[in-house]
Amino acid sequence: MLLVTGTSTEVGKTVTTAALAAAALAAERTVAVCKPAQTGVAPGEPGDLAEIARLSGVTRTLELARYPDPLAPDTAARRCGAPLLTLGETAAAVEELDADLVLVEGAGGLLVRLGDFTLLDLALRLDAPVLVVAAAGLGTLNHSELTVRTLRAANVPCAGLVIGSWPGQPDLATECNRHDLPRVTEVGLVGAVPAGAGTWDRARFTAAAAGWFG
């Protein structure tokens, strides 16, 4: 089991999760993906899990709650009058997923409330490691170190850092960050996903995904 968080929103968590799923499927492992709370998507519209399935080919997915406003899940739930997800029900649902690799994608960063809990709380309940998806450019060193320090303080294993959108023409800060991220966090940089990979078709995406990690 692996939980996937980001240093913030829009850093590439969904595409990274899809790439992890694609790499595992290519290695002939079974995969299930859970997105506990989806926000900013109306009922019947495709959300993050649909994108993960489109890119990776994974067929077993689980979404526990959906709220229309593009806000933190607990705020979005309150605004539409829906009950908050609970840590107990979410952990139980994830534990019921039977696969060689179970991926759980959070919302935003590590301490965003998915209901009455955060992804950090879920990691503690499930005794699962957390992979941190980081931005490539300025600001990522601070955000990444804060996230990793929070995991370390809670004794939650960090499975590594992945740059969620590596540009085709990186600037100086981005090039430096690639070397400085493991130095300041003391966590290995285990992957980098090319910018724009989320727009690729499945054949191209799945053929390349395993090569983004190492």
TrEMBL record:
Binding positions for Mg(2+) per the UniProt entry: 14, 48, 105
Keywords (A to Z) from UniProt: ATP-binding, Biotin biosynthesis, Cytoplasm, Ligase, Magnesium, Metal-binding, Nucleotide-binding
Catalytic activity: (7R,8S)-7,8-diammoniononanoate + CO2 + ATP = (4R,5S)-dethiobiotin + ADP + phosphate + 3 H(+)
Enzyme class, spelled out: ligase
Subcellular location: Cytoplasm
Cross-referenced CDD domains: DTBS
Family membership noted in the UniProt record: Belongs to the dethiobiotin synthetase family.
Subunit structure comment from the entry: Homodimer.
Function: Catalyzes a mechanistically unusual reaction, the ATP-dependent insertion of CO2 between the N7 and N8 nitrogen atoms of 7,8-diaminopelargonic acid (DAPA, also called 7,8-diammoniononanoate) to form a ureido ring.
Protein name stated in the entry: ATP-dependent dethiobiotin synthetase BioD
Protein encoded by which gene: bioD
